[in-house]
Amino acid sequence: GFKRAVRLRKTPTPKGRFWSQEKPSIRREIIRREVRKAVARLPYHQREFIECFYFMGETYEQIEKRLGKERYKLERIHHQALERLRFLLADFVEAHFGIKVERANRCPICSHPEREKIERILERKRPEESWRPAMKILRTEFELKLSTVQTVIAHLRKHMR
């Protein structure tokens, strides 16, 4: 299982140390810090749900009252938050535990070799601007085959690091 994989880890961390050489209290603090950073990057409702459910131990019923959302919506928020956290924490898990995280990602932007350049272009777009100029650049300069802007918007919401 997971704990066994951590104990048997043979690959050094990026800092050149073996994870198993860290004191348990230091390991816990490193994990806690990375998870908190990832949670802070979630959209508001996802972050609120994760904090209430996992950090404060609240039930779905309590969160329903707190956030004013129906259970089926909370279940969707929960699923989306876990999916986003898995993506955000994948590099950390691979580096510190030696566990390869499967990234079943069909996003054309994520799999593009010039992803960082594309994301810089997307970050520069202001809310009041049309998507048309950015889409034109993505299609011409990066040869991305995007039929609608929805793929770009989904990338921004789910995959931006």
How are helices and strands ordered from N to C? HHHHHHHH
Q: Poorly predicted ranges (pLDDT <50, ≥5 residues)? A: 1-13
Q: Which value, in Å, is the CA radius of gyration?
A: 19 Å
CATH topology of the largest domain: Arc Repressor Mutant, subunit A
CATH superfamily of the largest domain: Winged helix-like DNA-binding domain superfamily/Winged helix DNA-binding domain
Number of helices: 8
- Say how many strands there are: 0
Principal-axis shape equals globular
Q: What is the typical, i.e. mean, pLDDT? A: 84
Main sheet makeup: none
> What fraction of residues sit in β-strands?
under 5%
Proportion of residues in helical segments: 55-70%
Distance between the termini: 28 Å
What is the CATH first-level class name of the largest domain? Mainly Alpha
In words, what does this structure look like?
The protein is mainly alpha-helical and 161 residues long. The chain is built from eight helices and no strands. The longest helix has 27 residues. The N terminus is likely disordered.
Any chance you could write out the topology, listing elements then pairs?
Elements: H1 2-7, H2 24-40, H3 44-55, H4 60-67, H5 71-97, H6 115-124, H7 132-140, H8 150-158
Helix pairs in contact: 2-5, 3-5
Q: How would you summarize this macromolecular structure in one to three sentences?
A:
With 161 residues, the chain is mainly α. The protein is 61% helix and 0% strand.
